[in-house]
C-alpha cells in the first residue's frame, strides 16, 4: 500500500514540476494565419492585394461615406432626401454648410481611406520578398500603389494635405503630422508614374481579371491629379496617352452605361466592382453596395430616398433647348410618372414623400436584386468612378487652358455626338471659342457626369463653388476643404491640425 | 508505518473487547430543544473509533449503538444543530436535547481550495446557505446573490426567460468585463444557466483580494464558489420533491398617447415645421383610443419547476441524485421567448480504502431557449410597441396584420414581428469531475481532480416570407414590413473545456496552540471553441417545420457556410499557508503564478500574492464583556488579475474574408489582411485590494454584525483604446486604464428563537464609489452607448468620473419667448420659443459639443437588502426587500429620430405659448433645436426598492407527518416583485448592462449600463409550491 501511495506522490511531483509550460501555453490561431507565417507564395500575394481592393468597396466604415455624399449632395445637383432632416442629420448640416467638425461621416471617410492605404502598404512591404513570377509581383505592387494613391487623391481633394502614410506605421508613428498639399501631389504623381510603368493595359488582362487596375486607370488618376493642380500641359499629355492607347471608346448608347450590361464597358476606365450575390449583411457588407438601396425612393420602392436631384439640375438639361430636353436627362433622373424598372410607376403617393425627382443612374430593378440574403446590403451596381467621357472632357479642359481650342472642341464634341445619337435636332457641335467654350465644357461635364460624384469637386477646383453654392452657405477659404475630424486631432494629441475656418 | 499502527490499534481494541468484554449497548433518543420534537436522522458516532459503524436516529428519534467501553465518547450531530459530545460512563440510556446552532461563526465556510470555520477567516467572504434560498423559488442561480449579501450588485440584463444577469462584486473595477469567476464544485465555469438552484448547497463569495488571490489571474472581479448538494454518510436515503407553478405578468405599462391625442400632437408638430399634416389627422376626434400596442404584446405567462432529489449514504459512500424540470414563458411573446431546462445530477463519494476516497460530480443539462430580439433600439417588439403609432390597427379588416402608413423603417408592427420570429437555442451541457483524495498521514493529503465541461449548442433561425401589403400586386408595404424571400440559418457551437488540478494539503496542530495548514497545488486547463454555421435562402416551403438548409431549389447557389475555432490554455501553480496562534491570532499568505496563452511570450506569467491577518479579540483573557460573544478584527491585502480578452491578441492575425470580385462572372476572390494591430506586450490586468473588517456577535450569536471597508485599485486595465485612424487598423488591446473602487459594507442579522416563535431580521448595505484614475498616456475618454434618436453616444468613461458616466447637454428650462432665444447663446438656426434652452457651459456664446458634461452616474451610491423571516406554529412568513439608491438611468425609449413615433403622455403638457411649460418643449417634426439630443432631460433617478419576494408557507406538523412516514411537507405561496417603489417612468428600473456578454471581443457592452432602450421588464410572479421529503 505504501508503494502505491508513493507512486501517487511521484505522479504529483511529475505533474507539478514538469516544464510543459511554454509549449502548453503556445496557442496560435486555428482558423487564419498570423502575419509571421503568411506571405509565402503567389497566392498569398494575390490575397494581400485583393484585401486592398476590398477597401475600395468600403461605404460604411462605420458610418456611411459614399462618393455621392460629397460630390453630389454637397453640390447643387441634389439634396440629401431620406425620411427627414433628422435622417443622417450630419448630412443635413453638411449640405447646408453648417459643417460639424466631429461628424461620424467624415470620420468614416478618413478611417476607411487610411485602412485602404494601410492595406496597400502591407502589400508593398510584404510582397517584395516573396519568391514568385516577377511580372505578376510587379503588377501586384503597381496595383497597390494605385490603390493608395486613389485614397490619397480623395483625402487631398477633400481635406488638403494629410498625414502621408507611405508605409505601415509603427505605433510610435501614429501621430504623423499632415504633409502639405504640394507634398501630397508630389508623392501621388511619383507613385502613379511608378505604377503606370508596370501596369498592364485593359486589354492585356484576361477576362477573369476585369476590374483590376489598368495602366489607363492609373493614367486617369494621374490626369485628375494634374487637373486638380491646374498642371494643364502634363494633363493634356496624360489624357492623350489614354486616348492614344486605343483601349477606350465611348459606348454607343449613353443609356446603356448604367445598366448591368454596361459595367466595365468600352468607356469604363476605373470602376469599383460590386455584386449582388455575396450574402452580405448590414454588419458585414461583403461585395455588395448600399448605393442602390440608399438612392431608391422610399415607400413602395423599398429604398431610403437619398440623393434627391434638384430642379436646378433638371433645368440644366433644358438650358440649351427649352423645348427639347437633353436625352441624357432620362438616364439621369426619374420624374413623376416614369416607370421605376419593375418596381412600378413613380407617384408621390407611392414614395410617401413630396420629391419630384429621384436619381436613376444607380437604380436597380427588383429582378436585379440579390436572390439570396438581404437585398439592401447586396446592391450590384459598380461605382463608375472614372469614365472615358470624363477623360475626354478633362482633355478638352486641358487643351483649352494650353491654347488648343480646336483640339478641345474635338474632344468635347465627341461626347456630344454620342449623347446626340441619331437625333440631329439637338446637341449641335460646339463652335464657340474663349470663355464660352470653357463654359460649354463645364456644362457638358454636368450633363454628362451628373450625380456621379464629380460636381462639388469640379466646382471647387474651377473656383466656381462660391458662385454656385454661396447661397447655400458655402464660403471660400473654408468650405473648399472639409474639416479634419476632431476625434483625429485629439487622438494624435493635436499633431494633426485643423483646416482654416473650422 | 502508519498502517502498522492501525493494526496495533485494531489488535488492542479487539483484545479489549474479548478480554474485558466491556462493550455495551446504549439506547436513547434525540429531541429538539426548540419544540421538543423528535429529531430524525441525527448522526451518532463513537469518537476516535474507526471501527464504530455509527448510527442515525429512527423516525421516532430513537437510536441504539454499541460502544467499546465506559470511556467512549459519543458524538451527536445534526445539520443546523450544535454538535454534542457525551461520555458514556455508566449510563445505558442517553437522551440528548439538541440546541440550534446559533453562532454563524461556527459555520464551516468553503474558501478557495478548502474549508474554514467562519470565525477563523481573515478575509472578506460572504456566505449564502441553501436554507436561505430553499424556502423561496429562485429562477436563476445569480438571483440568489441579489440583495442577500453585502458587496454584491446583481442586475437583470433582461426580464426575458433565460437571460443572464450582471453580477458585480465590489463595483465595476474594469472596463473590460467585470463578471466574477464562477467555480462550481471546483470547476471554473462560464455562466450559471445550467444549474438548478435547488441543487445548490451553498454559495460563497470571495470579495477581497486575499481570499480570491488563490485564483490568481481570474479572481480580479471576485470569486463565487458554488457547492452542490451531496449525501451524508450513514444516512438513510431521503427523497424530496420541490416544485412550484405560477403565473407572471407585467407589473407596469407606460402611459402613452392614445390615437386622438396622437393626432393632436402630430397636427401641431407638422404645422410647427411649416408642413401640412396628413389629412386624416385634421379631425382628431374621429379617432378614439386606437391601438394599445403594449396590451397587444404583453401577456400573462406560466412558470413551473419540478425537482426530485435522492440523497443518502452508507458507511463508506454517499450519493445525491436529482432531476429538475423548469419552464418559463415570457411576458412578451409567450412561447416565442421562453426557457426550458432539464437537468440531472449525480454526486457521489466513496471511501475505497482507508487512505483513499474517490468521488464524482456530474451534471447534465439540456435547455431550449426561444428568443425575441430585445434591448435594442432597432428591432425589438418592445421598443416597437412603445413607438408604434396608436392609429394603426393590429390587423386589417381581412384579419391579416396591418402596417403603419407613417413608419417605413425600424418601427413596424410588433405583433406581426413576434409571429414571424423563429429563433431557437438548444444546448446540451455536460459538466462533471472525478477526484481522488489520498490521505498519506493524518496531516498530509493529496486531492487530484479531473473535470470536463462540454457544451453542444445549436441555434436555429428561420426567417419566413411575409408581406403586409394592402395591395398584393403592388406589394406596397415598406421594406421592413415584408420579407419576400425566406431563409434559414443553422449554427452549431461546441465548447469543450477540461481542467486537471492537484492539491497537496498539510494540516497540523502543535501543542494545542499552533494550528498550521499549508496547501500547494497546480491547475492545467484548456478551453476550446468550435463554431460551424450554415445558411440557406429561398426555400420552397414557408413552414418553419420544413426549414432545413438542404430544403431548397438550388442548394449550390444559395447555401453558405462558415467556421471558427479558438483555443486557450492556462497553467497555474499556487500555495497558501495558514497559521493560527492560540485561537486568537490568524495569519494567512498565498501566492499564485499563472501562465495564460492569451498573452505574448513576453508576459505570459503573472504572480499574485496576498496576505491577511485576523485577531479574535474576544478570545483574549483580558476581554471580559459577557454581552459580546465574538469580536474579531480582520485586515488583508492582495493582488489578482483579469485576463478577460479574446484569444491571440498579442499576435497579428491575418483575417480572411477581405474579398473582391473580378471578371464578368463576378467571381468572389479571396483577400486577407491583418485588421487589428498586435500588442506583443499584452499582460494581465491587475487588481490590488486592501480590506479591513470587523465581525461582532452579541448575546451568544443572536445578533451578528459584520463590516468591511476596502480600497480596490485596478491597474493595467485591458482596453482597446482608440488609436489614430492613420494606423489603418483597429486598435490593439492595451494595458492602459486604471480604476479605483472603494466601499463600505455592513451586514447585520438578528435571530430570536423562542418556544413558539422564531424570527430573524437581517439587512445589508453596500456603498461603492468608483472612479477612473487613468486612461494611459494621452488617453482619450471612451465613449459608448449609442443612442440612435440623438445619433450619438450617451456614456463617457474619463479620468475622475465613474466608469460609463452619462455625458451630455444640460437643460435650462424652455425658451418662453423669441427674445429669450436671441438673448441666449446660439443653439441652432431655427431654434424658437418653446425649444429647450441648453446651458452654455463654457460661456463661448455657442451651444456645441463643448457644452456637455457628466449628467448622470449609472452606478448606485448604495445597494441594500432587507430580509425578514418568521416561523410560528408551523407557519412561515418571509419578506425580502432589495433596493438600489442614487443611480441614474437614461430613458431612451422614444425614437425621436422618427417624427411619427408615439410618445409618453407627458407631451400633453408641452409648451404651447409663453408660460405654458418650462420642461416639456414644443412639438415640431423637424425638431430644429434637436431637443432630443443627449441631455439631462432623459436622465432619471433609477433608485428603487422592491419587494423581491414575499412568501407564506405552512409546514404540516411532524406528528401528522410521521403517520405517513414523511419527514417534511410544506406548502407555500409566494410572489416575486410584488411591490416596486420607484420614480422611474420607464417599464422597469432594474436595468443591467446589455447585449452580448459572452463575446469577449466586444468591449462596449460593459460601458453600457442603465440605458433603457425598451428594456424587457421583469415580471410580477405569483406562484404556489410544495416541498416534500420522506
Instruction: Estimate the mean pLDDT confidence of chain A.
Output: 92
Reading the helices and strands of chain A in chain order gives HHEHHEHHHHHHEHEHHEHEEHHHHHH
* Principal-axis shape of chain A: globular
SS elements, strand count of chain A: 7
Number of strands of chain B: 53
Distance between the termini of chain B: 45 Å
Explain what you see.
The complex is a heterodimer of chains A (502) and B (1030). Chain A is mainly alpha-helical. Chain A is built from 20 helices and seven strands. Chain A has a domain at 38-199 and 473-502: Serine Threonine Protein Phosphatase 5, Tetratricopeptide repeat (Alpha Horseshoe), CATH 1.25.40.890. Helix content of chain A is 45%, strand content 5%. The mean pLDDT of chain A is 92. Chain B has ten helices and 53 strands. Chain B is globular. Among the domains of chain B are: 2-98, Carboxypeptidase-like, regulatory domain (Immunoglobulin-like), CATH 2.60.40; 104-236, Ferric Hydroxamate Uptake Protein, Chain A, domain 1, CATH 2.170.130. Chain B is mainly beta and 1030 residues long.
Amino acid at each position: 500500500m505504501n508503494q502505491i501511495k508513493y507512486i501517487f506522490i511521484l505522479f504529483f511531483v511529475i505533474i507539478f514540476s514538469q516544464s510543459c509550460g511554454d509549449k502548453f501555453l503556445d496557442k496560435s490561431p486555428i482558423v487564419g494565419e498570423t502575419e509571421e507565417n503568411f506571405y509565402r507564395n503567389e497566392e498569398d500575394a494575390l490575397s494581400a492585394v485583393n484585401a486592398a481592393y476590398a477597401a475600395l468597396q468600403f461605404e460604411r466604415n462605420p458610418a456611411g461615406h459614399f462618393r455621392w455624399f460629397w460630390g453630389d449632395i454637397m453640390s447643387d445637383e441634389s439634396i440629401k432626401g431620406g425620411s427627414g432632416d433628422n435622417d443622417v442629420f450630419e448630412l443635413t448640416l453638411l449640405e447646408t454648410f453648417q459643417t460639424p467638425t466631429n461628424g461620424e461621416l467624415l470620420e468614416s471617410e478618413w478611417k476607411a481611406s487610411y485602412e485602404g492605404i494601410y492595406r496597400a502598404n502591407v502589400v508593398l512591404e510584404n510582397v517584395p520578398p516573396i519568391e514568385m513570377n516577377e511580372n505578376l509581383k510587379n503588377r501586384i505592387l503597381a496595383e497597390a500603389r494605385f490603390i493608395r494613391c486613389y485614397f490619397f487623391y480623395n483625402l487631398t481633394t477633400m481635406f488638403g494635405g494629410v498625414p502621408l502614410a507611405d508605409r505601415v506605421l509603427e505605433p510610435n508613428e501614429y501621430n504623423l503630422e499632415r504633409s502639405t498639399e504640394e507634398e501630397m501631389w508630389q508623392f501621388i504623381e511619383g507613385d502613379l508614374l511608378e505604377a503606370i510603368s508596370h501596369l498592364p493595359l485593359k486589354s492585356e488582362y484576361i477576362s477573369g481579371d476585369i476590374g483590376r487596375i489598368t495602366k489607363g486607370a492609373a493614367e486617369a488618376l494621374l490626369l485628375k491629379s494634374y487637373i486638380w493642380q491646374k498642371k494643364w500641359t502634363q494633363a493634356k499629355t496624360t489624357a492623350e496617352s489614354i486616348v492614344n492607347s486605343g483601349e477606350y471608346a465611348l459606348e454607343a448608347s449613353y443609356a446603356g452605361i448604367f445598366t448591368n450590361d454596361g459595367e466595365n464597358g468600352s468607356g469604363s476606365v476605373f470602376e469599383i466592382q460590386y455584386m449582388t450575390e455575396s450574402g452580405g449583411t448590414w454588419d458585414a457588407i461583403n461585395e455588395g453596395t448600399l448605393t442602390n438601396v440608399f438612392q431608391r425612393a422610399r415607400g413602395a420602392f423599398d429604398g431610403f430616398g437619398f440623393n434627391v436631384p434638384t430642379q436646378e439640375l433638371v433645368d440644366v438639361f433644358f438650358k440649351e433647348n427649352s423645348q427639347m430636353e437633353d436625352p441624357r436627362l432620362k438616364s439621369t433622373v426619374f420624374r413623376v410618372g416614369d416607370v421605376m424598372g419593375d418596381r412600378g410607376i413613380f407617384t408621390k403617393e407611392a414614395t410617401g414623400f413630396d420629391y419630384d425627382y429621384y436619381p436613376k443612374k444607380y437604380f436597380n430593378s427588383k429582378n436585379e436584386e440579390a436572390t439570396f440574403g438581404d437585398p439592401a446590403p447586396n446592391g450590384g451596381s459598380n461605382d463608375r468612378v472614372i469614365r472615358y467621357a470624363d477623360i475626354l472632357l478633362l482633355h478638352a479642359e486641358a487643351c483649352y487652358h494650353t491654347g488648343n481650342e480646336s483640339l478641345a472642341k474635338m474632344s468635347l464634341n465627341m461626347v456630344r455626338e454620342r449623347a446626340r445619337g441619331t437625333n440631329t435636332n439637338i446637341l449641335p457641335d460646339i463652335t464657340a471659342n474663349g470663355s464660352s467654350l470653357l463654359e460649354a465644357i463645364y456644362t457638358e461635364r454636368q450633363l454628362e457626369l451628373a450625380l456621379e460624384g464629380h460636381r462639388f469637386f469640379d466646382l471647387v477646383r474651377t473656383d466656381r463653388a462660391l458662385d454656385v453654392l454661396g447661397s447655400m452657405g458655402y464660403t471660400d477659404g473654408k468650405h473648399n476643404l472639409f474639416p479634419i475630424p476632431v476625434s483625429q486631432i485629439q487622438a494624435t494629441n493635436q499633431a494633426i491640425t485643423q483646416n482654416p475656418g473650422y | 508505518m502508519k498502517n502498522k499502527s492501525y493494526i496495533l490499534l485494531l489488535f488492542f481494541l479487539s483484545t479489549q473487547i474479548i478480554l474485558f468484554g466491556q462493550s455495551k449497548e446504549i439506547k436513547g433518543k434525540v429531541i429538539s430543544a426548540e419544540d421538543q420534537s423528535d429529531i430524525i436522522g441525527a448522526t451518532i458516532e463513537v469518537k476516535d473509533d474507526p471501527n464504530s459503524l455509527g448510527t442515525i436516529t429512527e423516525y421516532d428519534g430513537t437510536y441504539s449503538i454499541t460502544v467499546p467501553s465506559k470511556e467512549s465518547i459519543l458524538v451527536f450531530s445534526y445539520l443546523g444543530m450544535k454538535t454534542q459530545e457525551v461520555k458514556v460512563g455508566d449510563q445505558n440510556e442517553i437522551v440528548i436535547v439538541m440546541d440550534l446552532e446559533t453562532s454563524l461563526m461556527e459555520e464551516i465556510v468553503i474558501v478557495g481550495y478548502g474549508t474554514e470555520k467562519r470565525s477563523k477567516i481573515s478575509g472578506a467572504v460572504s456566505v449564502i446557505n441553501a436554507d436561505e434560498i430553499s424556502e423561496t423559488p429562485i429562477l436563476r442561480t445569480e438571483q440568489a446573490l441579489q440583495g442577500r449579501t453585502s458587496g454584491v450588485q446583481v442586475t437583470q440584463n433582461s426580464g426575458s426567460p433565460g437571460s443572464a444577469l450582471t453580477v458585480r462584486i465590489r463595483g465595476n473595477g474594469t472596463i473590460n468585463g467585470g463578471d466574477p469567476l464562477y467555480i462550481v464544485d471546483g470547476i471554473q465555469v462560464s455562466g450559471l444557466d445550467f444549474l438548478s438552484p435547488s441543487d445548490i448547497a451553498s454559495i460563497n463569495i470571495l470579495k477581497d483580494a486575499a481570499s480570491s488571490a488563490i485564483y490568481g489571474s481570474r479572481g480580479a472581479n471576485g470569486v463565487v464558489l458554488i457547492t452542490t448538494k451531496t449525501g451524508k454518510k450513514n444516512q438513510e436515503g431521503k427523497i424530496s420533491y420541490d416544485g412550484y407553478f405560477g403565473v407572471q405578468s407585467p407589473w407596469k405599462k407606460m402611459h402613452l398617447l392614445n390615437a386622438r391625442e396622437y393626432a393632436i400632437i402630430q397636427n401641431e408638430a407638422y404645422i410647427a415645421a411649416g408642413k401640412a399634416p396628413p389629412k386624416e389627422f385634421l379631425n382628431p376626434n374621429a379617432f378614439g383610443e386606437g391601438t394599445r400596442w403594449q396590451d397587444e404584446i404583453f401577456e400573462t405567462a406560466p412558470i413551473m419547476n419540478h425537482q426530485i432529489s435522492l440523497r443518502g449514504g452508507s458507511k463508506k459512500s454517499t450519493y445525491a441524485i436529482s432531476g429538475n424540470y423548469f419552464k418559463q414563458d415570457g411576458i412578451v411573446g409567450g412561447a416565442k421567448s421562453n426557457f426550458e431546462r432539464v437537468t440531472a445530477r449525480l454526486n457521489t463519494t466513496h471511501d475505497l480504502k482507508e487512505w483513499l476516497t474517490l468521488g464524482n460530480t456530474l451534471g447534465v443539462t439540456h435547455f431550449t431557449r426561444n428568443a425575441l430580439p430585445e434591448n435594442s433600439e432597432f428591432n425589438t417588439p418592445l421598443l416597437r410597441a412603445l413607438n408604434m403609432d396608436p392609429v394603426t390597427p393590429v390587423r386589417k379588416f381581412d384579419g391579416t396584420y396591418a402596417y403603419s402608413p407613417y413608419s417605413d423603417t425600424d418601427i413596424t408592427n410588433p405583433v406581426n414581428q413576434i409571429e414571424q420570429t423563429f429563433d431557437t437555442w438548444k444546448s446540451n451541457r455536460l459538466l462533471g469531475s472525478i477526484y481522488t483524495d489520498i490521505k498519506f498521514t493524518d496531516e498530509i493529503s493529496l486531492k487530484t481532480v479531473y473535470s470536463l465541461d462540454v457544451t453542444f449548442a445549436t441555434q436555429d433561425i428561420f426567417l419566413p416570407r411575409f408581406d403586409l401589403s394592402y395591395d398584393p400586386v403592388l406589394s406596397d408595404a415598406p421594406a421592413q414590413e415584408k420579407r419576400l424571400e425566406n431563409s434559414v440559418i443553422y449554427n452549431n457551437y461546441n465548447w469543450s473545456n477540461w481542467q486537471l488540478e492537484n492539491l497537496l494539503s498539510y494540516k497540523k496542530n502543535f501543542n494545542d496552540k499552533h494550528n498550521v495548514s499549508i496547501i500547494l497545488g497546480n491547475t492545467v486547463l484548456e478551453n476550446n471553441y468550435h463554431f460551424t454555421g450554415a445558411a440557406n435562402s429561398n426555400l420552397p416551403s414557408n413552414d418553419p417545420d420544413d426549414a432545413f438548409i438542404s430544403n431548397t431549389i438550388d442548394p449550390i447557389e444559395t447555401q453558405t457556410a462558415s467556421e471558427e475555432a479558438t483555443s486557450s490554455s492556462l497553467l497555474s501553480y499556487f500555495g497558501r499557508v495558514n497559521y493560527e496562534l492560540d485561537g486568537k491570532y490568524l495569519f494567512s499568505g498565498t501566492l499564485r503564478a499563472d501562465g495564460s496563452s492569451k498573452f505574448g511570450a513576453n508576459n505570459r506569467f503573472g504572480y499574485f500574492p496576498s496576505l491577511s491577518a485576523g485577531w479574535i479579540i474576544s478570545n483574549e483573557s483580558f476581554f471580559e464583556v459577557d454581552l459580546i460573544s465574538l469580536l474579531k478584527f480582520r485586515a488583508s491585502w492582495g493582488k489578482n488579475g483579469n485576463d478577460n480578452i479574446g484569444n491571440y491578441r498579442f499576435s497579428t492575425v491575418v483575417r480572411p474574408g477581405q474579398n473582391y470580385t473580378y471578371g464578368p462572372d463576378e467571381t468572389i476572390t479571396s483577400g486577407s489582411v491583418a485588421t487589428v494591430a498586435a500588442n506583443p506586450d499584452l499582460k494581465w490586468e491587475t487588481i490590488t485590494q486592501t480590506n479591513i473588517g470587523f465581525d461582532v456577535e452579541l448575546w451568544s450569536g443572536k445578533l451578528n454584525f459584520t463590516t468591511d471597508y476596502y480600497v480596490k485599485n485596478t491597474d493595467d486595465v485591458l482596453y482597446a483604446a482608440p488609436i489614430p485612424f492613420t494606423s489603418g487598423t483597429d486598435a490593439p488591446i492595451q494595458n492602459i486604464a486604471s480604476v479605483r473602487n472603494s466601499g463600505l459594507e455592513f451586514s447585520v442579522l438578528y435571530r430570536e428563537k423562542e418556544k413558539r416563535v422564531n424570527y430573524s431580521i437581517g439587512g445589508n448595505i453596500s456603498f461603492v464609489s468608483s472612479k477612473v484614475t487613468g486612461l494611459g498616456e494621452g488617453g482619450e475618454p471612451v465613449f459608448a452607448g449609442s443612442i440612435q434618436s440623438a445619433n450619438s453616444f450617451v456614456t463617457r468613461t474619463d479620468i475622475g468620473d465613474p466608469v460609463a458616466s452619462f455625458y451630455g447637454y444640460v437643460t435650462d428650462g424652455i425658451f418662453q419667448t423669441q427674445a429669450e432665444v436671441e438673448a441666449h447663446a446660439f443653439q441652432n438656426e431655427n431654434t424658437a420659443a418653446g425649444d429647450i434652452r441648453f446651458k452654455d457651459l463654457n460661456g463661448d456664446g455657442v451651444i456645441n459639443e463643448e457644452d456637455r458634461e457628466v449628467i448622470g452616474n449609472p452606478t448606485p451610491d448604495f445597494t441594500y437588502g432587507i430580509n425578514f423571516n418568521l416561523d410560528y406554529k408551523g407557519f412561515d412568513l418571509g419578506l425580502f426587500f432589495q433596493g438600489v439608491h442614487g443611480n441614474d438611468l437614461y430613458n431612451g425609449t422614444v425614437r425621436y429620430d422618427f417624427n411619427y413615433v408615439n410618445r409618453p403622455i407627458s407631451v400633453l403638457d408641452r409648451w404651447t405659448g409663453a408660460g405654458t411649460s418650462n420642461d416639456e418643449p414644443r412639438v415640431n417634426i423637424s425638431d430644429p433645436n434637436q431637443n432630443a439630443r443627449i441631455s439631462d432631460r432623459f436622465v432619471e433617478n433609477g433608485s428603487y426598492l422592491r419587494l423581491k419576494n414575499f412568501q407564506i408557507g405552512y409546514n404540516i406538523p411532524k406528528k401528522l407527518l410521521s403517520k405517513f412516514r414523511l419527514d417534511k411537507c410544506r406548502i407555500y405561496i409566494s410572489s416575486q416583485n410584488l411591490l416596486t417603489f420607484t420614480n422611474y417612468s420607464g417599464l422597469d428600473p432594474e436595468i443591467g448592462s446589455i447585449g452580448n456578454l459572452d463575446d469577449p471581443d466586444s468591449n462596449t457592452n460593459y460601458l453600457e449600463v442603465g440605458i433603457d432602450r425598451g428594456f424587457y421588464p421583469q415580471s410580477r410572479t405569483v406562484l404556489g409550491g410544495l416541498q416534500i421529503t420522506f
